[in-house]
Design a protein that fits this description.
It is a single chain. The protein is α+β, with helices and mostly antiparallel strands and 167 residues long. It is 33% helix and 20% strand. It has a five-stranded mixed beta sheet with strand order 2-1-3-4-5, sandwiched between helices. Helix 1 packs across helix 2 and helix 3 crosses helix 4. The longest helix is centred in the first third of the chain and has 18 residues. The chain is globular.
């Protein structure tokens, strides 16, 4: 059964990355803090996909297991929160759309950006990723919450469903 995480708004991740030195880890946490201050400050909208990708890469690239999270947005595309809602194994995570719907309602979000990592390093989407995205879009559509993107973090540039024309 997946574990629900608490909101990570303005709190840097405490997940250690085994390949980093102590000094590098401090630098990553500092960078996360700067990005979180900029992205989750309610007066500022997410200014570019690149800014979002950089934040998500820093947040998820060091995870050893698959993590599925959501960036909840208000009606002006300002980030309300990033929450890592599900953690899985090395190659999959069980994701329940009803949990995402409930959190979107709890946070009064008008849209979301879905995100998960591939610990294997590949950023390409699978048939399972496409099917899950369709199910989540349908579930959130029932409460008028739009899925803006689904980003897959691996090595290199993250994969964007929106940029690939899949949303």
């Amino acid at each position: 059964m997946p574990q629900l995480a608490t909101s990570e708004v303005l709190q840097p991740s405490t997940t250690p990355c085994p390949a980093l030195t102590v000094q590098e880890s401090r630098l990553v946490h500092r960078a996360l803090h700067v990005l979180e201050q900029r992205m989750f400050h309610r007066e500022a909208a997410i200014s570019s996909p690149r800014e979002l990708y950089d934040y998500l890469r820093l947040k998820l690239a060091g995870e050893l297991h698959e993590v599925f999270g959501v960036v909840f947005l208000d009606c002006q595309n300002r980030a309300i929160a990033f929450e890592a809602l599900f953690q899985g194994t090395i190659n999959q995570a069980v994701v329940y759309p009803r949990v995402i719907v409930k959190r979107a309602m709890d946070l009064n979000a008008s849209s979301v950006i879905l995100v998960h990592n591939h610990p294997s390093g590949t950023s390409q989407c699978s048939d399972a990723d496409r099917g899950l995205t369709e199910r989540i879009c349908a579930s959130l559509g029932l409460i008028d919450v739009r899925v803006v993107d689904h980003v897959i973090v691996g090595s290199g540039t993250p994969y964007s469903f929106a940029e690939a024309g899949l949303l």
